[in-house]
Specification:
By secondary structure, the chain is α+β, with helices and mostly antiparallel strands. The protein is globular. The strands form two sheets. A three-stranded antiparallel beta sheet has the order 3-2-4. Strands 1-5 form a two-stranded antiparallel sheet. It has one domain: Transcriptional regulator MraZ domain (Chemotaxis protein chec), CATH 3.40.1550.20. It is built from three helices and five strands. Helices cover 29% and strands 20% of the residues. The protein starts with 15 loop residues before the first strand and ends in a 6-residue tail after the last strand. The longest helix is centred in the middle third of the chain and has 12 residues.
Length: 96
């Protein structure tokens, strides 16, 4: 599943972001928030994050400099979460 479109959002006082209702069902089993390449946060369903890492990181040598750097960026900047009853996710301070 691709999350298409652009949405303007604000974080509440507890650093929570409301997920647009059209995406909530796809994220019902959880969400992975990852540090993007630009100053951004990428949102994945758990299976989507696994596919992403297999496709883009799986081909790099995990012991090589580039492979280590990419893994550190994506895995070190990724966090598991789940939607609360109001359809919100909390962004960790590291991603804000």
């Amino acid at each position: 599943m691709s999350f298409l479109g652009q949405y303007e959002h604000n974080l509440d006082a507890k650093d929570r972001l409301t997920v647009p209702s059209r995406f909530r069902a796809a994220l019902a089993d959880g969400v992975v928030l990852a540090k993007g390449l630009d100053p951004s946060v990428w949102v994945f369903a758990p299976g989507g994050y696994e596919n992403f890492t297999k496709q883009f990181l799986g081909e790099t040598n995990p012991l090589g400099k580039r492979g280590r750097m990419l893994r550190r960026h994506f895995h070190g900047g990724a966090f598991d979460d789940s939607l609360d009853s109001a359809g919100r996710i909390r962004l960790p301070k590291k991603l804000i």
